[in-house]
Write a structure and sequence with these properties.
By secondary structure, this protein is α/β, with parallel strands linked by helices. It is built from nine helices and eight strands. Strands 2-6-1-7-8 form a five-stranded parallel beta sheet, with helices on both faces. It has a three-stranded antiparallel beta sheet with strand order 3-4-5. Helix 1 crosses helix 9.
């Protein structure tokens, strides 16, 4: 029988990086559900559709095919209509579009069955905004991974600067706060810890310490 680990938390908490490393250590399949929503957001932007225009976004879904694949190094790839968009979905614009389109019930339903099928077939660590509350309510372990908004903004700012982008910290912080507000107050599957989730706060931890803590938490609670 497969084992599912659900990891939820706000944008910029490092869920993807930390969960991916933990999955590799534990021999689990890593599923980044946020990347799926980002692919929808990217398609919406490419189509010139307002991500908040529900009817227009829903009309696009019939032409969208989002799948996950893995390269020779077992890194997760996000495939949108046959195109590897893994490197195109991490911009602030796509992030905001994903936040808005993910509030649309039809978008969530479109991706929900794919996510649940993966959890039935494989041992998975799946991260997102509503994994423990909606997608995998019966997950073996549920974790709410978080850090302060200021720490998350600083990490994102440093990442963008390293990539050569010209950004202002205050603008990045404002984006983080807006994203949190959108995610926590959307009417469908808002971001919140599951009642039986374990809080893991990485505000005072570096990357390796965060990975080690997540692995320890999973191992101690999945026996």
């Amino acid at each position: 029988m497969s084992i599912a680990i659900a990891i939820d938390g706000p944008a910029g908490a490092g869920k993807s990086t930390i969960a991916k490393a933990a999955a590799k250590h534990l021999g689990f399949i890593y599923v980044d559900t946020g990347a799926m929503y980002r692919a929808i957001g990217l398609y919406t932007l490419r189509a010139g559709v307002d991500p908040q225009d529900t009817d227009a976004v829903v009309a696009l879904l019939k032409d969208v095919d989002v799948t996950l694949a893995r390269d020779e190094k077992k890194n997760q790839l996000v495939i949108l209509n046959g195109e590897d968009v893994s490197g195109l979905i991490r911009t602030e614009q796509v992030s905001m579009a994903a936040s808005r389109t993910s509030a649309i019930p039809e978008v969530r339903e479109y991706l929900l069955s794919l996510q649940r099928d993966m959890a039935k077939e494989y041992d998975v660590i799946m991260d997102g905004r509503d994994i423990g509350t909606v997608v995998l309510p019966d997950a073996k372990v549920k974790i709410f991974l978080t850090a302060s908004a200021e720490i998350r903004a600083r990490r994102r700012y440093d990442e963008l600067i390293e990539k050569g982008q010209s950004v202002v910290y205050e603008d990045v912080l404002a984006d983080v706060i807006e994203r949190d507000n959108n995610d926590m107050n959307r009417p469908i599957a808002p971001l919140r810890p599951a009642e039986d989730s374990i809080l893991v706060d990485t505000s005072e931890l570096n990357l390796q310490e965060s990975i080690d803590l997540l692995i320890k938490t999973i191992e101690e609670n999945s026996k």
